[in-house]
Amino acid sequence: MTELQANASAAGGAAMVVGLSPLSETLWRDSKALPVAGAAALIGDVSARLTWKDLSVTVALGPGKTQVVLDELTGYAEPGSLTALMGPSGSGKSTLLDALAGRLAANAFQSGSVLLNGRKAKLSFGAAFFAQTGFPCPPLRNPSDHFLRCVNSDFDKVKATLKGSMKARVERSDDPLDRITTSEATRKLVASYSRSQYYYTAREKVNDISRIKGTVLDSGGSQASFLMQACTLTKRSFINMSRDFGYYWLRLLIYILVTVCIGTIYLDVGTKYTSILARGACAAFVFGFVTFMSIGGFPSFVEEMKVFQRERLNGHYGVAAFVISNTVSATPFLILICFLSGTICYFMVRLHPGFLHYIFFLLNLYASVTVVESLMMVIASVIPNFLMGIIIGAGIQGIFMLVSGYFRLPQDIPKPFWRYPMQYISFHYWALQGQCQNDLTGLVFDNQYPDQPKIPGDFILKYIFQINLERSKWIDLSVIFSMIFIYRILFFLMIKINEDVMPWVRGHIARKRIQTKDSGATFGKTPSLRGYVVDPELGPNES
Q: Which of 55, 245, 299, 533 fits 112 for a cystine, CB–CB 3.0-4.6 Å?
C-alpha cells in the first residue's frame, strides 16, 4: 500500500491531494475549493478513467448508402498511462477520438457506451499477440512498422509492383505477410483477437472501471467571467490584428494612396458650375469604391473564425464575448484608417469648410467602412471559403452601389424590388445622401453662363441629386450606425444557427438517408481500403 493510499484509509476513504493537474482543475467542478499551494485538503478521487464498450460509428453517405467507420470497439484509458492509437490513414483513429469527445459530425451515428468514471460522458501487448496470430515480427524489423505492415493496404500496391520482378521470382521470403493480402490478414487479426485472452482481459478491465462511481467530472465551460473573457479576447485579437500586415496595415497604405489620387484629381474643386457634378462624383467614389476595399480583410477574419470554432467546441468562451471583442479590437484600426485617409481627401479636395462638416465626413466614412466589415463578418459565418466570400461580398456591394442614387437618380430607380427595399437596405444610399447634404448645403455655385444667377446648394440637392431636404444628414448617419448594430446581431445569430440548428438539420437529413437504405445493402469499407484492398474471393479491384 502506498503512502497516498494509507492516508486515504486513515481519512475515511478520502485521498490526501496537494494539487491537481491543469486538466483535473478544468474538469473538477469543486477545484476552486482547494487551498492555496503548499497546503493539503481531504478530497475524493478526482482522477479520470475513460472506458468505451462496443463503440460503433456509422456514417450516412447519401440516399440509401451508409458506411461503418468503427465496429464494436472496446477499450479503456487510466490515469498514469498513455494509450496510443495506431493504424493506417482512414482506419478510424480520428473518428474514435471524435466519438470519445462527443464531436461526431451530424451525419455520423454512434452506438455503444462511453463512460467517464463510470458515468456516461462526452469525451502494449502487440508483439506477442501478432506472433500468436501467425504474423511474428521479424528479428530486424521495428515492431511498430510491423504492425502497420499487417493492416496497411498500401503495401499491397508495393507487392503488386514487385510481383513481376526477377527478385520476387527467385527469392522466397519467410515473411507470411508476403503470401497474404492485407484484407485477409486484418480479418485473421480481428478474429484472433475476439478469442484471445487480451480481449477478455480488456473487457473485464472495462467492466471493473465502469462499476467505479468516481467524482463527477465536467468541463462546465470557462471559469472566467464574461467581462474577463471579452477583455482577454479583445487583447488577443488586437495583437493579432497589429501583427498581421494584411489585416489593416496594408489597407491603410492603400487607402492613403487612393485618397491621394482622389485629392490630386479633384484638387481644390471649388464652386464653379462644373464643380457640382465633380463634388457628387467625389462623394460617390469615396463612399463607394473606398469603402469597397474593406473586403480585403476577409481572409484574415476567416482564419480568426476557424480559431474561434475550435475554441468554441472546448467551451472556452461564448459567442457574445467573441463578437464584442472583435468589434472593440477593430475599432482603433478603423478609426486610424478613416482619420488619415479622410483628412487627406477632405483638405486636398477642399470640401465644405467648417470643423463640424469635417467631423461629419469622418464619421460617415468610419460608419460606412464598419458596415462593410460587419457585412463581411456575416458572410464569413456562412461561407468560410476565401474566394467565394470575397466574390459574394463584392457582388452585394456592387448591387448596393447601383441603387445608391448616383448612377441612377433615386426617383428614376424602379420601385419594385430595386427601390423598395434594396435602395433603403443599401448603406451607400444613406452615406451618399448625408455627404451631399453635408457638402452642398450652404454653398453657392456659379451658373453655366456668367450673366445668370448663382445656384444655391439646396436647389442642387433637391432638383439635381433628388435628395430629400426634410431629412437631416444626422438621421442618415444614424441609419448607417444602426446598420452596424443590425449586421453584428446577424453575425451573432448566424453563429448560433450554425451551432444549434444546422447540426440538427444535417442529422435529420442523414437519418432520412439511412431510413431509405435498401434492406439488402451492406456497409462499405473505410475510404482508405476501398480502392486498394485485394479481396481473395473477388479478386483485385480494378481502377
A: 55
Q: 277: how many CB neighbours lie within 10 A of its CB? A: 12
Q: What would you measure as the largest C-alpha separation in the chain, in angstroms?
A: 112
Q: How far lies 532's CA from each of 20, 49, 397, 529, in Å?
A: 48, 38, 49, 6
Question: What pLDDT score was predicted for residue 9?
Answer: 43
If 0-12 CB within 10 Å is exposed, 13-18 middle and 19+ buried, where does residue 59 land?
Answer: buried
Report the C-alpha gap between 131 and 75 in whole angstroms.
21
Phi (first) and psi of residue 157, to 5 degrees? -70, -35
Query: How much is the pLDDT for 8?
Result: 40
Among 53, 91, 92, 90, CA closest to 73: 53
389-431 confidence digits (pLDDT tens): 999 999 999 999 999 999 999 999 999 999 999 999 999 999 9
Q: For residue 19, what pLDDT is reported?
A: 42
All structural domains of the chain with their residue ranges: 3-43, 48-218, 226-471
Q: pTM of the entire structure?
A: 0.66
- Bridge partners (DSSP) of residue 113 are 53
The answer to whether the bond into 384 is cis (omega within 30° of 0) is no
Residue 486 to residue 124: CA distance in whole angstroms: 57
What φ, ψ does residue 405 adopt, rounded to 5°? 105, 5
Q: Which residues neighbour 244 within 8 Å (Cβ) at sequence distance 6 or greater?
A: 300
The C-alpha atoms of residue 381 and residue 491 are separated, in whole angstroms, by 7
Enumerate the β-bridge partners of residue 77: 50
Which residues have C-beta within 8 Å of that of residue 174, sequence separation ≥ 6? 138
State how far the Cα of 234 lies from the Cα of 313, in Å rounded to an integer: 19
DSSP secondary structure letter of residue 326: H
pLDDT digits (tens, 9 = 90+) for 290-311: 888 888 889 889 999 988 988 8
d(CA 399, CA 159): 60
Query: Grid cell 484492398 — which residue?
Result: 533
